[in-house]
Amino acid sequence: MTTRDMVFVALFAALTAACAVFPPFQAPFVPAPIIVQNIGVMLAGSILGARRGGLSLLLFVILVAVGLPLLTGWKGGFGVILGPTGGFILSWIPAAFVVGWFVERYWNRLNFWNLLLFNVIGGVIVVYVIGIPWLAVVANMEFGKALAGSTIFIPGDVIKAIVAAAVAMVVKRSYPLINP
Amino acid sequence: MSLPLAYAWSRPAARIQRIMFEISNVSQRFGERHVLKDISLRIGERRVGVIGANGSGKSTFVRLLNGLLIPDEGTVTVDGIDTRTDVKAVRRKVGFVFQNPDNQIVFPVVEEDLEFGLKNLKLSKQEIASRIDSILGKYKLEHLRQCAAHLLSGGEKQMLAISAVLVMEPSYVVFDEPMTLLDLRNKKLVLDTIHAIEQPIILVTHDLEHLEEFERVIVFEDGQVVADGAPDDAIRYYTQAMA
Amino acid sequence: MLSLYVPGDTIVHRIPAGIKLLILVIGSMALFVISNIPVHVAELLIIAALFQVARLPWKDTLRQLRTALIFMVPIFLFHVFLTDWMLGLETVLRILVLLLLAVLVTLTTKVSDMMDVLERVVRPLKHLGVNPSKVSMMLSMVIRFIPMMMREAQEILEAQRARGLDRNAIALLMPLLIKTLKMADDLSESIEARGYDPEPVVPVWKRRG
Question: pLDDT tens digits, residue range B88-145?
């Protein structure tokens, strides 16, 4: 890994943290408020690729765990990681990796639509596949109920996938950082 | 823009006591753009200024001097060491201060940032501590030792960046527009600091009045050296060409 | 430095960070193995006593627990209606013990001490090809970048608010990214100019002799 790679990895961890500044907002026809932060996950994967993107979120999660208040609402510490929603936070690491893996594979054929699909696979499906069973176990809930409770967040996550895909396509044109 | 003269004058190399930097037939391209076109220079003065419009190639030129860029064609040597063969040795010899102070501070706390370069030199703990003490004392930054870097003012940040380079005790120091982003008072502080440095320096700047006391000024235009000599003449030439 | 640490000089503060983290890891696993109401109540009392000993303000503790507490109400109600209330109570107590323990560690341990522990944990990974000095360098850089990025994000948010674009996520993210990607390039130049040259780390399976 070059010095430049290290700086970019650190940068996207910090970017994910900085997104905590943007307050959660309410979009029309979406039941739950949208938290801007996990867009950092999709962007890290789409812009840096699998290895660097995953590493970036690993750094972010480590810093949250050791007690920096980097999650929306200035939360942090082991409590969040071990709590009912901890699975969602931990899933950000493989999520960024998965988005990045697809992006690297399809780099030369990348367009808005397939990038949107990759963001949904990594940034939404992977997150729910890890986060929901975690919630079910920690809260002694049935899997189905945990799933039902989480569905209200899906529309917001899809909106984020759209934004991330649009932004990452512009960055790909003006500042490409993946050379397969 | 076409210039009235290709070389208005030229300083003979014989007057240089010792060649510090030798640039031989260097060309550099970024994609389609020919940024430097067959540059050859010998530098041995203690105070050298580099001026030119944005995009004239001056920033690319100074990045060759400490191996941040290795030229596509031609060679650059520092005290006889080729940047292509031993870039580490060259970087130890040539310190580099950049334009934006924010983008040079690597570590969260002032003291840690000063330590960074010294650790790269693999110095002993005592040596690191004593060098940091003396540099903080010299530039009156002692009170900022434990300060978080992001809380410093613009001028303090640039003074930290300069200290972080000087603490490594390089043989030469290159400054790439170090005052462009500062306010007037801090410009003066940084300029006075640069003038007082013992090592030979190369200063890239837009402000012509900064170069009045310099020994030599090199003017870049469209990837070529269009003027090279004493500051009065160079500055007159530059202002005429711009008019 | 941004951190959740509440300064103090109590016994709880003085326990080495490594021990605290170890207790937390073992404790979090034990909670799932031994789970019944009387044990959890006893644990809660012990932790409450430790909070007293550490002299932590309730405000900080509650702020960290707020979202989790909001989550616990539906979890409890879910069990009351669908399984039985005893299981609900047990679950909620278990989560509460775990969270309070974690918050206790977070509020009484300096981030720099945690980072030292982390470095020690990472060090053996060099046999797997992970360079510990690079890891700690990257962690430091993240801490350096965060306040910088937050300030940039805040500035962009204000600028776009003035233009009525503060609800447009692309108008917020695009300038933030372009500006900071440029910054990252400058910074890597500056790092290399200062002679950064980490020693390569060779994983076990590539070593010879």
Answer: 999 999 999 999 988 899 988 899 899 999 999 999 999 999 999 999 999 999 999 8
Which pair of tokens denotes residue B164?
């972080």
Structural domain spans, chain B? 16-104+170-242
Chain C residues lying within 8 Å of B147, measured CB to CB? none
Q: Counting beta carbons within 10 angstroms of the beta carbon of residue C105, is it exposed (0 to 12), middle (13 to 18) or buried (19 or more)?
A: buried
Contacts 24+ apart (CB under 8 A), A147-151: A149/C74
Chain B neighbours (≥3 Cβ pairs under 8 A) are C
Give the nearest partner residue to C153 out of A22, A43, A59, using CB atoms. A22
Residues 87-126 of A with CB under 8 A from C: none
What is the tens place of the pLDDT at every residue in A12-34?
999 998 887 766 666 666 666 67
C189 touches chain B (CB under 8 A): yes
C3 contacts chain B (CB < 8 A): no
pTM: 0.82
pLDDT in tens, C103-162: 888 888 887 787 788 888 888 888 877 888 888 889 889 988 888 888 888 888 888 888
Query: Residue A55 sits in a domain of what CATH number?
Result: 1.10.1760.20
Interface test with B, best of C144, C154, C189, C194 (most B CBs within 10 A): C194
CATH T-level assignment (fold) for domain B16-104+170-242: Rossmann fold (3.40.50)
Residue C74, both tokens: 């539906």
Q: Which of B63, B108, B161 is opposite residue C144, by nearest beta carbon?
A: B108
Residues in chain C: 209
CA B30 to chain centre: 21
Average per-residue pLDDT in chain C?
Answer: 83
Distances C123 to B176, C120, C133 between C-alpha atoms, Å: 38, 5, 8
Of the candidates B107, B165, B168, the beta carbon closest to that of C140 is on B107
Nearest CB neighbour to A68, from listed C2, C64, C148: C2
Domain count, chain A: 1
The confidence score (pLDDT) of residue A66 equals 77
Q: B6 pLDDT exceeds 50? A: no
C193-202 pLDDT tens trace: 998 887 777 7
Q: Is C142 on the interface with A (CB under 8 A)?
A: yes
Q: What is the ipTM of this complex?
A: 0.89
Q: Residue A80: CA atoms inside 13 Å, Cβ hemisphere, count?
A: 27
- Partner B contacted by C150 (CB < 8 A): no
CA-only gyration radius of chain B, Å: 18
Per-residue pLDDT of B32-81, as tens digits, reads 888 999 999 999 999 999 998 888 999 999 999 999 999 999 999 999 99
Look at the block and give the residue holding tokens 């069973």: A133
C-beta atoms of B91 and C190 within 8 A: no
Interface test with C, best of A140, A169, A177 (most C CBs within 10 A): A140
* Bridge partner residues of B34 (DSSP): B29
With respect to residue A180, please indicate whether it lies within any of the assigned structural domains.
no
pLDDT, average across residues B192-211:
91
| Domain hosting residue A109, numbered range | 3-20+32-174
